[in-house]
Design brief:
alpha+beta; OB fold (Dihydrolipoamide Acetyltransferase, E2P); 2 domains; five-stranded mixed beta barrel
Length: about 220
């Protein structure tokens, strides 16, 4: 098995699965510490207009449409990337197994990689579509994140510390639930899971908060 995985024709797929494992591990550890890697990656990306129908590759916004077709924007980019790496790696190894069973040799790695990528794309879309119905979204098209300022959120994952955001749950004026990253303002105490915090400003994709001391304000 090890020789098969490390064979030249299978290296793209073995490497993809290894990267997937490392990213999934980092994301899991990050979530335990209250600073998921996916939130950091999403903060580096521009906003994407979602178009879940078949993308029009001739349009000016073709790249955004393709990304939207993969549900990037509804699901954290890192989650989509991990699913794509998994589908690509498994599809490639299965393809090479079948090809070797028929011909006795492995397909050239770059040719196998192209075929595996084509196979992996629709499988990734279907898989991520399922994830999109499970994972909470931190934004909706109907509500601007600017309207969150002055509202109360509840820390749901990890402990929010200065420089180390944690995930929090927020209900907007329409009753919709949003999951955002929050970080205490300078000089403010840590906010463990279950703490209610008041959003005072937005800094990138992170909201700066202070403890909620007003019992009239609730999440």
């Amino acid at each position: 098995m090890f020789e098969f995985l490390t064979a030249e024709g299978n290296l793209p797929f073995s490497i993809a699965l290894a990267i997937m494992f490392v990213l999934a591990l980092l994301e899991g550890v990050g979530m335990l510490l209250g600073a998921g890697l996916s939130a950091f990656v999403d903060g580096l990306l521009p906003d994407i207009d979602i178009d879940v129908d078949a993308p029009d590759v001739d349009s000016p916004g073709a790249i955004s449409q393709i990304l939207g077709w993969l549900y990037i924007g509804k699901v954290p980019f890192l989650v989509v990337f991990i699913v794509l790496l998994t589908c690509f790696g498994i599809a490639g190894l299965l393809l090479q197994t079948l090809f070797q069973a028929v011909t006795g040799v492995l397909l050239i790695n770059w040719l196998a990689a192209i075929a595996a990528f084509v196979i992996a794309l629709p499988i990734t879309r279907v898989s991520v579509k399922g994830v999109a119905h499970i994972l909470p979204r931190d934004e909706t098209e109907a509500v601007s994140s600017n309207s969150f300022i002055g509202r109360v959120a509840t820390v749901t994952t990890g402990t929010a510390r200065e420089g180390y955001p944690a995930q929090a749950r927020l209900n907007d004026q329409f009753g919709q639930t949003h999951y955002i990253m929050v970080e205490p303002d300078q000089g403010q105490p840590e906010q463990p899971t279950g703490s209610q915090v008041l959003l005072i400003r937005q800094q990138g994709h992170t909201f700066i908060v202070i403890p909620n001391t007003n019992p009239a304000l609730v999440d």
